[in-house]
């Protein structure tokens, strides 16, 4: 099949819900990809932060192969080893108490929303179910997580949206307090607003918010769908902010490319969701769990330190470019946003870079870079050379 035949097949039988770039991807190795014609691309996207350990990783592939031959799926009405080992590793490395496994980031955030509301219902009864989220946030594409998302552009078409959400300004504790009408049960936030433009929260704001939640007995819920699993240079971003949330969601990079998500809870919330209150048919799937265990093995403390070093190197090189179209970078680890200057459009710049052989993303008004965490310095340099030449 060639590129035009693939496009025709897509057009004939796929809902056109994605604004795809005019590029196909056939295979990859590390952080390098090739299309059907054999053209090479350096990947600064990792499938929107999913392919955390790169493409063609032999340890990851062997874990999937071995588990698939042993047990591909079994109902959650029975015990199996992979999900239990994964939960143990996640809790041990984060200080959280228990895990729930699902299939996606939106599903994970739905679980956090249910956690917050049931915790409050069990303790205070009805009438305390509002969740505060932040303007410019993004939490998913289900009806509930779209409502939780603090961007008006997403509150279209699918009416009626859910009740029970209010929006505060990021880095403004007074704005958060102003949303309190005596009916709040939780605050849900991203520590780095990904889709909003790769905007890290100020540490002082996060500390104040944690104190406020403790004072009010609101659950502090952290959406780490994009920031989690090593992306920011620690296993979870909250570990760099000096807080311990009541609940934290994860997805994207957890299984290295297989669909998986979930959330962790602290000891206070361990018993909130009991039998019959939450479930997922495919949650904790043995193959996905085995892949995730291997991802976490690869992302040891040495590798997480390398993620921080690579992120600092990437941002330093970008900040030194001094191009007319782009400004300074921001972010944590290998989650990097690049300012697009006035007079330029990020999607047009992204298209030029992709055409030149460097895959990048957009977020808000910025360019967004999410390379595989295992990207080599040689691949980083090759991608940066494409960027520098293309944006001259």
Automatic annotation (TrEMBL):
Annotated protein name in UniProt: Acetylornithine aminotransferase
UniProt gene name: argD
Stored Pfam families: Aminotran_3 (PF00202)
GO molecular function: identical protein binding; N2-acetyl-L-ornithine:2-oxoglutarate 5-aminotransferase activity; pyridoxal phosphate binding
Cellular component terms per the entry's GO annotation: cytoplasm
Assembly and oligomerization: Homodimer.
Record-listed N6-(pyridoxal phosphate)lysine modification sites: 252
Biological source species: Candidatus Flavonifractor merdipullorum
InterPro entries, A to Z: AcOrn/SuccOrn_fam, Aminotrans_3, Aminotrans_3_PPA_site, Class-III_PLP-dep_AT, PyrdxlP-dep_Trfase, PyrdxlP-dep_Trfase_major, PyrdxlP-dep_Trfase_small
Cofactor binding note from Swiss-Prot or TrEMBL: Binds 1 pyridoxal phosphate per subunit.
Residues engaged in binding pyridoxal 5'-phosphate: 105-106, 138, 223-226, 281
Cofactors: pyridoxal 5'-phosphate
EC annotation from Swiss-Prot or TrEMBL: 2.6.1.11
Single GO biological process annotation from the record: L-arginine biosynthetic process
Catalysed reactions, semicolon-separated: N(2)-acetyl-L-ornithine + 2-oxoglutarate = N-acetyl-L-glutamate 5-semialdehyde + L-glutamate
Biological or metabolic pathway of the protein: Amino-acid biosynthesis; L-arginine biosynthesis; N(2)-acetyl-L-ornithine from L-glutamate: step 4/4
Something else known: May also have succinyldiaminopimelate aminotransferase activity, thus carrying out the corresponding step in lysine biosynthesis.
CDD domains attached to this UniProt entry: OAT_like (cd00610)
PANTHER family hit by this protein: ACETYLORNITHINE AMINOTRANSFERASE, MITOCHONDRIAL, AMINOTRANSFERASE CLASS III
Record's keyword terms, sorted: Amino-acid biosynthesis, Aminotransferase, Arginine biosynthesis, Cytoplasm, Pyridoxal phosphate, Transferase
Similarity comment: Belongs to the class-III pyridoxal-phosphate-dependent aminotransferase family. ArgD subfamily.
Subcellular compartments: Cytoplasm
Binding of N(2)-acetyl-L-ornithine, residues: 141, 280
Record flagged with keyword Disulfide bond: no
